[in-house]
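Anyone opening a protein record will find just a pair of labelled lines. With that in mind, the following record should read easily:
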Amino acid sequence: MALEVLQLEVARHFATPWLVNEFTLTTDTLNGIVPKLDPVFGFFKTGTNEIALPLRTITSIKTKSRFSLLRLILAIVGISLGGISLLAIVSGDPEVDLVTVAFLVFLPAGVWLGLQVYTAELVIRDDSGGKERVEVSVADRGAARAFADAVSRAAADAAPKDNPQGGGASEFE
C-alpha cells in the first residue's frame, strides 16, 4: 500500500489558536512539532518539542478527553474573587482599596482556567514503553482522531510481519 504524506495542524486549545501542533505522517515516520509553553501563564510559546517516531515502533495512538476538577475549582474561585472585586468597584464603594483592585486579576485568570477544564489529547505509545501526550483543541478532536486512525493503519502496515514459513525459523539459522 502506497501511503501519501499526511499532515495535521491542530490548535493546542481553542482559546490559543496561535499555538499550533504540527504532525506529518510519511511512509516510515511520524514527525511532529509541539510548542513548549511558559510555566506561569501557559499561553506564551517558549520553544518547541520535536517528535520523530519510526512507524514500526508505534504500538498505539489514540485521542482522549480529560476533565480537570482542579481547574474547575480554581476557575470558580478565580471568577468569584474577581467578580466580587468588580462589583465592589462598580458599586462605587468608598472602601475600595488596592487589594480590591488587585483581585480583579483573578477574573481573567478564572475565565482562562475555566476554558481549560475540558481538554483533549493525542496519546502516542511506542514499543519501549514511552508515551507522548500532546494536548489538542477539543474543537479539533475529530481531525486528530482521523489522523490517529491513519497513523494506526500505517503503523500496522509497517510492523514486521511473521515468518510465512511458520515454526519460528529465521533466516540466520
Remarks:
- The CA atoms of residues 59 and 126 lie 5 Å apart.
- Confidence is low (pLDDT under 50) at residues 163-173.
